Amino acid sequence: MAEVKVKVQPPDADPVEIENRIIELCHQFPHGITDQVIQNEMPHIEAQQRAVAINRLLSMGQLDLLRSNTGLLYRIKDSQNAGPVSFFLSKMKGSDNQEKLVYQIIEDAGNKGIWSRDIRYKSNLPLTEINKILKNLESKKLIKAVKSVAASKKKVYMLYNLQPDRSVTGGAWYSDQDFESEFVEVLNQQCFKFLQTKAETARESKQNPMIQRNSSFASSHEVWKYICELGISKVELSMEDIETILNTLIYDGKVEMTIIAAKEGTVGSVDGHMKLYRAVNPIIPPTGLVRAPCGLCPVFDDCHEGGEISPSNCIYMTEWLEF
Amino acid sequence: MTQAEIKLCSLLLQEHFGEIVEKIGVHLIRTGSQPLRVIAHDTGTSLDQVKKALCVLIQHNLVMYQVHKRGVVEYEAQCSRVLRMLRYPRYIYTAKTLYSDTGELIVEELLLNGKMTMSAVVKKVADRLTETMEDGKTMDYAEVSNTFVRLADTHFVQRCPWVPATENSDPGPPPPAPILVISEKDMYLVPKLSLIGKGKRRRSSDEDAAGEPKAKRPKHSTDNKEPIPDDGIYWQANLDRFHQHFRDQAIVSAVANRMDQTSSEIVRTMLRMSEITTPSAAPFTQPLSSNEIFRSLPVGYNISKQVLDQYLTLLADDPLEFVGKSGDSGGGMYVINLHKALGSLATATLESVVQERFGSRCARIFRLVLQKKHLEQKQVEDFAMIPAKEAKDMLYKMLSGNFISLQEIPKTPDHAPSRTFYLYTVNILSAARMLLHRCYKSIANLIERRQFETKENKRLLEKSQRVEAIIASMQATGAEEAQLQEIEEMITAPERQQLETLKRNVNKLDASEIQVDETIFLLESYIESTMKRQ
């Protein structure tokens, strides 16, 4: 009987087969596999064939090449967590590495966005290139430019579908880069009215002074709840926002604040203390100087006897005397 | 002395004492202390007139003299004392509220005459009061003396320094100018006088007094020959005590505005108890125990001890910091923080001026920078919640008005503007000084306007005075109704209208001077208190 020498060919010498096996391996180890693992799995494949297969997978965008401290890692890029990048790469295969780089930088900036000069520093690309790339990316609707509220000429770039951070848009007080003064004014007045009525009811209760004073105080949490229930704000306001409004009332001299130590569990306490606010009256009536026309006169420094503007022919005084 | 102060002093001296005194006074204020001959030479007035003017000024405590070496006597004017003349109406009004009409007239006489003996004051006041009383009633000297003694006890009037009696007769020539001394304990010592008598009316046509004058006349003639019992003991009004009173009033009303009536009464009691014991320039009053306060509360206030304690605790905890707790003995020792109170009042004055002049948003920025001490432009906008453009505008307006100042903090040794921090800050002392200067100029303007208005209508005023004199003399001689009416019609209706307007304007300007003076008082007290602390 003649022995047929059967050359056992390795079953997956076919490059496609190799790739598929590698992909299956990657699926098994979603965190990434090293070259060693592949080698163990398919010991019969030569290094050359392995390298070719891996390169092909990489260029097709199905594998991710990562470096770890042990060596190189290959990770599968499946459509769920690849997200826009695979979409992007599938759209523009073979496009600039530069564009990819720029895109990567913008993605890293998260929702704070990044300025074009910073992109230039990080990528070391010349300005003209950067501008071209940014225009390209914008037209492809991959990134967007958001105007910063701090410097209105400065534009920061971020990924298209990200929500800009508060520091860029200014938070609850800004809508489209405009400071909402009327909104702040309305809130200001409402808070003040609330504190005023509270103080009034406390004063009329006529109990002993300690209770009277303590009941005229309102914590920042109470005011916050009142404003939320009032529903005058379309934007959700946090307690810090209300505290900034109450601070402006303090600077108006209409409200005073004390901080008391509160137990951790009580409502509205932050780090063991609570801020209490109370409406107060000014300590002196408008002072004497402003009741005379000279106190408010805009041309006070030019006024002297015998000159164009003098007390004898002062029109402000004449008007004031006729009052 | 700033120009504004000198201008104001000159206006006041002219109004109260006339041209010559004004010339001498202003010259002294401008040039400091000078001897007699130099004054006469520089102002070009005769020696005689200079002497008379100096007499007037010294009598009113506006000029002091000093003997230098080599026997030269130099005279120095006190500018601040001249400015006090604005406050005379307020002093008189205070005396009226505390000691009713008698006190009011005593203080008025003392202020108008500078220095007087007690007997002279009593006599004059009694005469004046008797005139205003109903027919047949007269004012007893004893009552007036009592009020005088009470004024001296509460330190509202004080004795003037006098020449000490030398025991051994000095053989040498008398010194060129007498050296006046006064000791602390003698300042309020009332001499034992037995002033008997009643006030006299000017017109001696009283039927009831008919019986009296005969008995009185011989007595009066003998009185004139007897030496006045308290000759050489002169009294003057103690302005510092009045200032203390105003300061207490301001503090009490501030507490009443911030808290309630009862708290302000408690503070008033505390201040009253420390009136005599605390020197006027002290930053804190003496500590008072809660028991003492409870005992000294006014009779009408029935609050229990616990309620008082609660009020005191509330006062001590208040952010205003007017009252502080200094110990726990005797139920809790409390002091009033005078320096802090004056500071708060001065700050409130500044804030009020900023608010009225620039608007309430500017006032918000001003208070913000005041509280946070130093702020950058961006931080100001964030904290005050005011749009950037408006905030910038307001800050620059206040900066040019000198209420706010800039502090530069350079980042690099070359102070390049792009690499420097610019912080806004408020310096209360300098802002108070600036405002004070403005007050002086404002009052000078108001006085000038008042004089101008009066001068404009001089002709009309003279006419009305003549008419009044005619009517009075005709009434005395018993003229008929028709004749009186005829005379009155000499002043036509529009002229009457003009007179009315003039009177109203002059009153308004006068009242406004007093109001600005209130601001001056607060600012001056604060500046004085701060300078003493340094």
From TrEMBL, chain A:
InterPro entries: RNA_pol_Rpc34, RNA_pol_Rpc34-like, WH-like_DNA-bd_sf, WH_DNA-bd_sf. Keywords: DNA-directed RNA polymerase, Nucleus, Transcription. GO terms for cellular component: cytoplasm; nucleoplasm; RNA polymerase III complex. GO terms for biological process: transcription by RNA polymerase III. Gene3D superfamilies: Winged helix-like DNA-binding domain superfamily/Winged helix DNA-binding domain. The keyword Nucleus applies. Signal peptide: none annotated. Its main location: nucleus. It holds the Pfam family RNA_pol_Rpc34. The keyword Nucleus applies. It is found in: Nucleus. Component of the RNA polymerase III complex consisting of 17 subunits: a ten-subunit horseshoe-shaped catalytic core composed of POLR3A/RPC1, POLR3B/RPC2, POLR1C/RPAC1, POLR1D/RPAC2, POLR3K/RPC10, POLR2E/RPABC1, POLR2F/RPABC2, POLR2H/RPABC3, POLR2K/RPABC4 and POLR2L/RPABC5; a mobile stalk composed of two subunits POLR3H/RPC8 and CRCP/RPC9, protruding from the core and functioning primarily in transcription initiation; and additional subunits homologous to general transcription factors of the RNA polymerase II machinery, POLR3C/RPC3-POLR3F/RPC6-POLR3G/RPC7 heterotrimer required for transcription initiation and POLR3D/RPC4-POLR3E/RPC5 heterodimer involved in both transcription initiation and termination. Belongs to the eukaryotic RPC34/RPC39 RNA polymerase subunit family. DNA-dependent RNA polymerase catalyzes the transcription of DNA into RNA using the four ribonucleoside triphosphates as substrates. Specific peripheric component of RNA polymerase III which synthesizes small RNAs, such as 5S rRNA and tRNAs. This is DNA-directed RNA polymerase III subunit RPC6. It comes from Enhydra lutris kenyoni (northern sea otter). The lineage of its organism: Eukaryota, Metazoa, Chordata, Craniata, Vertebrata.
UniProtKB/TrEMBL annotation, chain B:
Residues 198-230 are annotated as: Disordered. GO terms for biological process: DNA-templated transcription. One of its GO terms (cellular component) is RNA polymerase III complex. InterPro entries: POLR3C_WHD, RNA_pol_III_RPC82-rel_HTH, RNA_pol_III_Rpc82_C, RPC3, WH-like_DNA-bd_sf. It holds the Pfam family RPC3_helical. The keyword Transcription applies. Residues 7-66 form the RNA polymerase III subunit RPC82-related helix-turn-helix domain. Residues 211-228 have a biased composition (Basic and acidic residues). Residues 146-344 form the RNA polymerase III Rpc82 C -terminal domain. Component of the RNA polymerase III (Pol III) complex consisting of 17 subunits. This is DNA-directed RNA polymerase III subunit RPC3. It comes from Enhydra lutris kenyoni (northern sea otter).
